Amino acid sequence: MIDDESARAVRHWRATAPDTVLLDGFHALKHALRFGAAVRAAVTSDKAAAVELAEDLADDLTEAIADLLVEVDAGTLRDLVPRVHPTRVAALAVRRGRQANLDELSRRPRQAPVVVLDNPRNLGNVGAVVRLAAGFGVTGVVTTGDIDPWHPNAVRSGAGLHFATAVERLPGDALPEGPLYALDPEGADIRSLTIPDDALLAFGSERHGISPELRKRATRLVALPMRPQVSSYNLATSVAMALFHWGGPDRPA
Ligand SMILES: C[S@@+](CC[C@H](N)C(=O)[O-])C[C@H]1O[C@@H](n2cnc3c(N)ncnc32)[C@H](O)[C@@H]1O
To answer: What is the DSSP string of 192-209?
Structure first.
């Protein structure tokens, strides 16, 4: 009986995988469910442990997670996912629709900034920024350049939070409207200004910084305080500092 269920789950997984994104681990599944992801398949090699984790960390979702998860043996889980997460949970969810993201990104008036990553190169950074964007409740994360911000490695480092904000790749000349605050060590000290809620907060690529095109269009160039002789901060940590300066959720009026 359990073997039948497991075999069915494996067939379903293989049929579903091409059109979905992998949620790698319990926390990714938890976040995705909290933010309304359509989860199409979920497997684990230790359902009792996963349900116990849900009871401890996500009692709002214990029932849903227990209903969704199908137990498969450890070898089968290894066949289904490239790298088994320590929680031994994996799930597949439908990517958020492009049109819904575009609607969200273009809605005015905007209550919280859009983060723009100008030609990012590191998928771990992209996911970390999505996670920050989710935590700060920003409108979305737009990337320019050739990297898909929904690449499995970006989704992995985003911990399932791609479903909590609008994440899209757009051409550099089709960014949402709004004043463009480009983060660059040559700019004005961020502590001397207020970031408006409708800003686009743009960050340069790990290799080359802000592109000349974006620099030219920027309303302001903004610098994070940094000691002389240090050339720059990591991309994701720069986003964290800028969003913290903007204010984030529940900031005083
Ligand atoms: C790793 S840095 C880019 C370093 C790159 N080699 C360069 O020449 O600019 C990635 C991005 O983080 C932001 N950043 C890093 N340090 C910054 C600082 N002190 N002030 C403002 N932005 C910073 C910028 O947007 C930068 O383009």
So the answer is: GS---TT-EEEE-BTTTB
